Amino acid sequence: MPTPIERAVAHLNKLEDERRAAIALSKEKAQEAKLLRARQEGFQEALEILDVDISLKGEEVSTSTTSQFDKRTRRNIPQFISNELSFSGKAMTTNQIAKAIDYLPERTEKALERMESSGQIIRTEDGRWTVDIRPEKINGHARATAIPGLGGQRSEIGVQE
Question: What is the gyration radius of the CA atoms in the chain, in angstroms?
Answer without folding.
Answer: 37
